[in-house]
Amino acid sequence: MRAAERSLRVTFESAETFQQEYAANLVHGGVFIPTDQAFKILEEVQVELVLAFSGDRLTMAGEVVHRVAPEMARMGAPAGVAVQFDGPLGVVRKRFEPLCALSGVSGEPPADPGQRRAPRTKARVTACVHSKTGQVMGHTQDLSRTGVLVSVPGEGVPVGEKVRLSLSHPTSGESMEVNGLVVRDIQGDSGVSGLGIAFEPAESERAELERFVEGIQSTEHTRRLGGITGGIAELGVQNLLQMFTSTMPTGTLTLQHGQREGVIGFDGGQLRFVRLGRATGLKALVRLLAWSEGRFEFHASLDSVEEREEPMPLHTALFDAARLLGEGERIDRSRLPAAAKPRIAKADSEGDDLSKVEATVLDLVRAGFTVQRMVDVIPEPDPAIYRALVTLAECGAISI
């Protein structure tokens, strides 16, 4: 053991406690260890597993992939670190065999209760879908050896189309490409929000693909250890975000409502990225603050994303988003049906003193856009677009 590596210890008082931890986490190549010590992400450590009931022990090398600081304990998360063990998952499981034999545990992963041929696990890694019409950047939602669900912004790729998919490992930086077939799409509020892709690897690629996917699954499982999850309804998105940002310097908050998924990343007092379908930045943040139900998952680390916008000061972004959300709630949306196609009512309206958003809305009215289409394509927050529509209608420039 190199002197620079620190040690952590996990003690199992009974065979039952070891069996429970093995089935839940060790079989996936990781463990969560309660501790108040501060560790850096990707710091190399030595983990000593002690079976108090038999007197046996095993030392494993690994790296820290997630940390829960003591400050988060008041939110219901125990302080500690998640450690992923070094080496391929099959090798890691083999090293556990002596301990498994002592406690009467099978060294094989638990059977999937749903009898899925290739169980899917949650995994959020960068993905790029290459199709005959171009490429779409996104991230995975879940992943198995036979396929993947990819969150994508915009139009997506038609069901039945063959694609080339590129996946990136979240910690090693390794990437792999594989052929696939789009087998389903998930429709969001403003277009396709997800693509189900079945892998179609060449026979020579199959073993390497399974190894790569297993490595991602193991890393993502371990990274989620010690994370905080719960429902949005109790506190609301704004309060959740304020709570986490006031406690932790860095973090990623993932929000799910039905089939929609949003993600917010912050670091050093800056909002680093916000994503909700094709919407980004302040536009996406306003939409997310409006969610009153769904689920959240928080991790004290910054996810990798396909693209990052200009950082925004956290407090400023939250204040602006809350203000815009309030303004939007005061607009009578019944006057603005999503399917309505506004028409030009005053031919010389282009000469009026228009704001940038109003001028853009006027151009799209001339192009025959519906209200919903305008809201989708204009990058400004939704309330600013609705306010522009109302203002133009009230001054007689357009009719709705």
Describe what this molecule looks like in 3D.
The protein has 400 residues and is of the alpha+beta class. The chain folds into four domains: 6-103, Thrombin, subunit H (Beta Barrel), CATH 2.40.10; 121-222, Thrombin, subunit H (Beta Barrel), CATH 2.40.10; 228-329, no CATH class; 333-399. The protein has ten helices and 21 strands. It has helices spanning 15-24, 89-95, 97-103, 203-224, 237-247, 281-289, 314-329, 356-366, 371-377, 382-394; strands at residues 6-12, 30-34, 44-51, 56-68, 80-85, 121-122, 126-131, 134-143, 147-151, 162-168, 175-188, 191-199, 228-231, 250-257, 260-267, 270-276, 279-280, 295-299, 312-313, 343-344, 398-399. Strands 13, 14, 15, 16, 17, 18 and 19 form a seven-stranded antiparallel β-sheet that branches. The protein is elongated. Residues 112-116 have low confidence and may be disordered.
